[in-house]
Amino acid sequence: MDTGRADMLAGRGVTALALRWFGGPGLPQVPREVPLELFGQAAGLLAEDCDAICLIGLSYGAEAALLTASLVGGVSATVAIAPTDVAWEGHVDREEDPARSKWTSDGRPVPFVPLDRSWQPPAGKPAFIESYRRSRLRAAPEQLRLATIPVERFRGELVLIAGGDDQIWPSVEASARIVARRESAGLGTVLVTDDRAGHPVVLPGEVAPNPNRPYLVGGDAGAAERLGAKAWPAISKVLGLPADA
To answer: Taking CA atoms, which of 130, 132, 146, 154 is between 20 and 30 Å from 243?
Structure first.
């Protein structure tokens, strides 16, 4: 859970909740068929004491935030860090298991893009970006259409943050599609990017994550902090914080 991020926000006067959405008691043990209502319920708890609700999510969390804002509602603003514009297949226990959605809504699986299981990472630390690009290209047009997150339904403020060297999935490309989709509906979107940043983002006051991972995330030295600092004015604005908070 992003408890460090919640602590940082709380230290600036925000009522913050770090939500466990899989791997805990009564929850799916992996990111598969997670009810979006879980996020809506959390937003409802905050709404009892707050004037506005903002969802902040990174990667899978950004996918959840965008889907919740678009399908469940009750959200004033959304900050999607390293986002995707489509819902993706959830985790499977075995390679031969049938593909299942990562999310459900109203008890039904959310349409998703299946991952291309024929893709194999090159030797060494894997980068998964080509897997997602290839899976998107191989998806049937109707499959892709149904899996596209209907961000035009969300009428609140939206901030997208993405690194041009993201090695997990193509978050800048996804961000551009989200911006275009909302523009076609007459909605504005704030997009903050850094060509040399990768998947992680470290906001001011946060501790940088352990860089030693078994896979590539991208970004040069200091990129996560640099992109976080660049994005902070937009984030603080949607949170209603002073510019210098």
So the answer is: 154
The whole domain housing 52 covers 3-238
**How many domains does the chain fold into?**
1
The pLDDT tens digits along the chain (245 residues) read 889 999 999 999 999 999 999 999 999 999 999 999 999 999 999 999 999 999 999 999 999 999 999 999 999 999 999 999 999 999 999 989 999 999 999 999 999 999 999 999 888 999 999 999 999 999 999 999 999 999 999 999 999 999 999 999 999 999 999 999 999 999 999 999 999 999 999 999 998 888 788 999 999 999 999 999 999 999 999 999 987 88
> Per the domain annotation, does 243 fall within a domain?
no
Residues 6+ apart with CB under 8 A from 118: none
In sequence order, the 6+-apart residues with CB closer than 8 A to the CB of 38 are 19, 21, 27
Indicate whether 17 belongs to any domain. yes
- The CATH number for 182's domain is 3.40.50.1820
Question: Left, alpha or beta for 199 (phi > 0: left; psi -120 to 50: alpha)?
Answer: alpha
Indicate whether 14 belongs to any domain. yes
